Amino acid sequence: MTSVTKVVIPVAGLGTRFLPATKAVPKEMLPVVDKPAIQYVVEEAVAAGLTDVLMVTGRGKGAIEDHFDHVVELQHTLERKGELDRLGRVTASTDLARIHFVRQGTPLGLGHAVLAGADHVGDHPFAVQLGDDLIDARDPLLPTMIAAQETLGGSVIALMEVDPGQIHLYGCAGVEPSDPSAGLGEDIVRVTDMVEKPDADQALSNLAMIGRYVLSPAVFDVLRQTPPGRDGEIQLTDALQTLASMPTEQGGGVHGVIFRGRRYDTGDRLDYLKAVVQLGSDREDLGPDFVGWLREFVASR
Ligand code: G1P
């Protein structure tokens, strides 16, 4: 039984990169093959033992709540027709986890969204997942982060090596090797500094922060004191920078897990297309036909 059971998922973002698709549909509901992106995220949480999900929502995000709720008429109809396979696909999202919702109110940034989870989370370490990042279920990341947090305390962030030309799209971390006596391997590092979306010449490294965090509850007090930063928003990265220099006894210290698995950025249109193709190709039911067609299609271009 893990000590980390709660996860905060901010879903209040406007999804402007995906207009007009996101004019009336939350970006988190865009399908990746046949499941909304947000369902992959919740499935990942549940697979990591996180059973208590808090979504930080905003206006126009009601479809997310509906997606994780029962839809009685549809379920009855499918039951009556004996279409149990389809019924299973409808109820799968409902039965996943205990899902709670809180409104962010004014959207003042990612740090502000996480702070909206303070009352629900209480005084235990908790996870944060950003819905734009999908982590392939075959390359689990959260369990490694949770284990690192349990061993080292403080907070743990997920890092990924990116092309230096891409670092301005991410939080960027400066790191050093972690204490070898903890025996956690070289992909777990101590994070000394973080900066939100630096220009390439200001970057601390090519290590980008990706959307998975396991945070000390000390982050809430720090967020309350964190002034608006990059883009005038209260940045989670800035709060983590403060935590990195605080003593462990006060919930300080930040470590990073360098992730080398498959990640899809469904918030970016090109990466979204790639995610659909990759995950569709790997599906037992659709993959063989799809890949056959894809080969012919590409050869004909
Ligand atoms: C957020 C974080 C950033 C992180 C990124 C990962 O930025 O602020 O530090 O690197 O998520 O996806 P956003 O992409 O929401 O602008």
What is shown here, in short?
Helices cover 33% and strands 23% of the residues. The protein is an alpha/beta fold. It has two domains: 6-267, Alpha-Beta Complex (Spore Coat Polysaccharide Biosynthesis Protein SpsA, Chain A); 272-301, no CATH class.
Total domains: 2
Distance between the termini: 52 Å
Unique ligands: 1-O-phosphono-alpha-D-glucopyranose
CATH domain class of the largest domain: Alpha Beta
Radius of gyration: 20 Å
Poorly predicted spans: none
Shape: globular
- Oligomeric state of the chains in view: single chain
CATH superfamily of the largest domain: Spore Coat Polysaccharide Biosynthesis Protein SpsA, Chain A
- The secondary-structure class comes to alpha/beta
Query: Fraction of residues in helices?
Result: 25-40%
Mean pLDDT: 94
Order of helices and strands: EEEHEHHHEHHEEHEEEEHHEEHH
Query: Which sequence of strands runs across the widest sheet?
Result: 8-11-9-10-12
Question: Could you walk me through the main structural features you see in this protein, from its secondary elements to its overall organization?
Answer:
With 301 residues, the protein is of the alpha/beta class. It folds into 2 domains: 6-267, Spore Coat Polysaccharide Biosynthesis Protein SpsA, Chain A; 272-301, no CATH class. The protein contains 11 helices and 13 strands. The strands form 3 sheets. The chain has a 5-stranded mixed β-barrel with strand order 8-11-9-10-12. Strand 2 (31-32) and strand 3 form a beta hairpin. Helix 3 (72-81) runs antiparallel to helix 4 and helix 8 (218-225) crosses helix 9 (236-244). The chain is globular and about 60 Å long. The mean pLDDT is 94. The site of 1-O-phosphono-alpha-D-glucopyranose has 14 residues, from strand 11 and helix 9.
